[in-house]
Amino acid sequence: MSLSKTLSPDNKTFTIQIQGKFDFNLVQEFRSAYADIGAENPKVVIDLRDTEYMDSSALGMLLNMQKNLGSKVSSIAISNCRPQIKKILQISRFDKKFEID
Amino acid sequence: MHILVVDDQALNRTMLQYMLEVEGYQVSLAENGRVAIETFNQVKPDVVLLDVIMPEMDGFETAPELKKMSGDVHLPIIFITSLDDQKSMLRCLEVGGDDFLAKPFDKVILSAKIKAHGRNRELSIRILEQRNELKYHQNLMDREHKIVEHIFSNALNNNRYIKDILSHHLSPASMFNGDMLLANRSQLGSSYILLGDFTGHGLAAAVGALPTAQTFFNLTNRGMSVGDIAREINNQLINLLPDDMFCAAAIIELSNSGKAVSIWCGGMPDILVVNRNSGIKQRIQAQHMALGILDNDEFEHASINCEVQDTDSLILYTDGVTESENKAGEMFGQERLEGFYNEQPKAELVDVISCLDDFRGATEQADDISLVQINCLASPKPEAVSENSIPPLPWHISLDLSPDDIRNTDPVANILDMVSAFEGMEKHRSTLFLLLAEMYNNSVDHGLLKLDSAIKDAEDGFFEYYMQRQEKLEQLTEGSLTLNISYAPGIESIKLSVTDSGEGFDTSEIADIQNRTEQHGRGLKLILELGEKLEYQDQGRTIIVHYSVAQSKALDEIPDAETAEIE
């Protein structure tokens, strides 16, 4: 379980990649990860390609992030979800609030 | 050395034989051309002394036949002649003669001439031997190249891609291409493309392609990010390649929807984003050094992400394209390439190639030339990996957990690792995790720690809640949890249950969960959606969820139920 963040060299995309398990154990790390997104209104990508597990606390963390960042970002996308993870997001109607790719 | 004397006069034959045998040569005799030819293959002479005028077959006729029979090895023929008119001597040379010996014979001159021509003969034999040896090595090398080529084409031709998305043109300058194109699709349906250019070309350059391809296919199958793929390949190459060899590369991932690309580019020419209607939209410069140069701790894996649309294409190319020269020594250059695309934004690769060919004219291709076009289209969902059916084996896993276990271990993830070891369970893994995690966390949080979910509703309550949870968990000394998970093959159903030693609660409270919109309760709603049945027993101390593995609504089919939007 780990979290890594990257600001793209053109400062336009801020990517947070979560490996393994996405749940409340990451609550602090996740919050501090998006504290420093740069000043250029980047797009935030939550890359879940390596995320195997996620529960409702992760959903809460995502919603909190959205509330927190608000207009500081151009958009927030959740990308590369595995099918079972995507299903959880769809059931929770997250497709109405995030770009899910 | 073996000398054949061909003369119709017995006296001449005897004299020559005598003179030569005194010098230590082996001598054979023939009285005319026909006999000489007939005995040639047994005698195998190194030098032939040949009379011109003989009955049956004269010297002029015999010489070309003997030369022919000698094949690739030079056979010196010295004409014995008393003729001194220019015309006859000229004819001797024309039919293949190498020298003349005048009658009467002079011992010293005869000996000198035999020696000189013997040397020529030996030289010719040596050259032939060397030629055969070269030929042997050439054959060996060809064979080995063919084997290597076979291995390469097997390693590099595993490419999987969608034809409408990827088109390419690869033109190596030698048998082995120092440029390399790899393509694969992940299980999520995104397309990966790697275009690489090793320093130099030919076999040496192509050697690095093998490990690169292996790593690429491995990691793309697992759906890794382009930055992580670049890092792994860099690691491989830094260990394998000599210091002066490296690989410029662009690694692209086009999402399943065709709307997003991420790019890691090191040491390659600018990637062009071309719109079919408006021309060049964007140039993406290499952000990094080529692969195989930097050590792992210096390596940068940051990638560039762009949004694209279905009328966009990415154009990737190696420097062989821009550095192609025409007769005047001018390079094709990036400007010319961009100009071409701005004039003809709908151009296909064949058009670019013919433009490049026109420019180059008759000038020979000096480097490998590779061009790749990636059309940013949505791709069909990847075919589902054939799923193992679940064998009709009933199983049951049960765990009793103390406060220490709850603090120090991760029982839900561990149970799921066990469960997914059962055949056919892998595809339910994340869903089962979610169900069990929700049940387990509710039991820990409310049953054992007596936390109030309403905390989450306050400003910043979400974090407050988890801070309190951690604090209370550290102080927990009493209580226990029991986790059960079992499979019933008859009804194709998995039963999950969690029992806590807490006080229980009024289970009628959760009846209207579907209509609630607070920060909490999200987990229960997910359980109701994903599970088949939810029940409480033992005054709420035990929660039981049934999950059907038969339901094929498993993946795509999301019910359009009017569930309240979760806030």
UniProtKB/TrEMBL annotation, chain A:
One of its GO terms (molecular function) is anti-sigma factor antagonist activity. This is Anti-sigma factor antagonist. CDD domains: STAS_anti-anti-sigma_factors (cd07043). PANTHER family: ANTI-SIGMA FACTOR ANTAGONIST TM_1081-RELATED-RELATED, STAS DOMAIN-CONTAINING PROTEIN. The lineage of its organism: Bacteria, Pseudomonadati, Pseudomonadota, Gammaproteobacteria, Alteromonadales. InterPro entries: Anti-sigma_ant, STAS_dom, STAS_dom_sf. Belongs to the anti-sigma-factor antagonist family. Residues 3-101 form the STAS domain.
UniProtKB/TrEMBL annotation, chain B:
Pfam families: Response_reg, SpoIIE. It comes from Catenovulum maritimum. The keyword Phosphoprotein applies. One of its GO terms (molecular function) is phosphatase activity. SMART domains: PP2C_SIG (SM00331), REC (SM00448). The modification 4-aspartylphosphate is found at residue 51. GO terms for biological process: phosphorelay signal transduction system. This is Chemotaxis protein CheY. CDD domains: HATPase_RsbW-like (cd16936). Residues 2-118 form the Response regulatory domain. Keywords: Hydrolase, Phosphoprotein. Coiled coil: none annotated. The keyword Cell inner membrane does not apply.
